[in-house]
Predict the structure of Sugar porter family MFS transporter.
Amino acid sequence: MKAGRFAATSAPGRAGVASGLAAVAGLMFGLDIGVISGALAPIAREFHANRLLQEWIVAAMMLGAALGVPIAARLSFGWGRKHTLFIGAVLFVAGSLFCAMAGSVGMLIAGRVMMGLAVGISTFTAPLYIAEIADPPHRGAMVSIYQLMITLGIMAAFVSNALFSYFDTWRWMLGIVAFPGIVFMIGVAFLPSSPRWLMMRGKREAARRTLQDLRGQGHSVARELREIDARLHVRTSGWALLRADRNFRRSVLLGVTLQLVQQFTGMNVVMYYAPRILGLAGFIDHARLWGTVSVGAVNVAATFLAIGLVDRWGRRPLLICGLVVMSIGMVLLGLSPSAEVREATAQALTIGGMVCFVSGFAFSAGPIVWVLCAEIQPLQGREFGVGCSTAANWIANMIVGVSFLTLVDRLGLSGTFWLYAGLNALFVVLVALFVPETKDLTLERIERDLTAGVRLRDIGRGPR
Ligand code: BGC
């Protein structure tokens, strides 16, 4: 499919439509995160799966995702971002159908690994692709739409869990993911290739045409092409670049740190254990389920704030503000289980703490970490750099998920929440010291400052 098919839309509308389509990957990611919590109990009943097997069914997706990231890094370099997204879409459809038809736990685990591969491939490729086709004034909002889709996917899964729980039909819960998967597959077939990738492969004329189509005929793309060109002189990439270039090491370390920060805020403690936390505060059955759905709704709603503000206020202020709000949320959650408070107070603190924490995450670390990770890597090492940060996201996600119950055992529920409150406070300092403001900068300008050795937080501050 040629980018020319987008000619009916106006720039930056064309880049917006293309980003929106790519962001459907986020929807699938969110569905996959949210769906298993509801499906696990009926699966365990049908297959008589013990606790260990259940853990494998859950963890298989994360394992697949961790494997999918390096695969995506190779594919998106050789075959391009668009074709890699297509492979991700095919795996989404195949994996969910495989899971829905599984006749044994082994088949189910294989299907979950396949879905994990799809998630790993698309969490790597979609933000990268969107950042590469977006124009600088809208880039933050466009990548944040990807996060919005993640939150919509999680929310849809929470609702479907609540509804299907009345019928015990786990096959539908897992199989339904194939429908958005098919839409995604068709959408991806109509996407233009990334102009930056085309330039990297020496397809200059195709790159010029695609960029012209994305920006609109009235826009001169000569400067943008020249800037991409100027960044193509380095011939090494990946490990070799990491060994040879101190500045590349800085950007890789920054990306990995940002993803660790995102995960160690504790967001997935709330996403995976919300019903349990609500239960501990005295909410029962239906109240717990619908309480979890409301947490999902807050997550969606607050993401709109990020989309509206990320290109106006910038990345740093939003991130710092969100981390402060998350700290406060965790303190409130930590206060709720103490013996002195009455049940009504405990419930108010739990709900207040969750709303505060989840909204803080949704307007800051959720979207902005994906935005920054896609922006800060130099073109020649972009696949490798984004691959490292995305893999860090999945590994940390797994650690946070499996350590929660052990932490509660050792530190108590309050102690665990306060630990996360402390971490969030620490992250405020980390962001203030090391994170650059990339609002309104071209990717090439970010790269120029990085490779000139400018201090990370001063990137983009000198004359344009
Ligand atoms: C994170 C996920 C998290 C989701 C919640 C994403 O940005 O990477 O781990 O579950 O946000 O909305």
Q: What stands out?
A: Confidence is low (pLDDT under 50) at residues 1-11. The pocket of beta-D-glucopyranose is lined by residues 33, 147, 150-151, 154, 262, 267-268, 271, 299, 366, 393, 397 (CB under 6 Å).
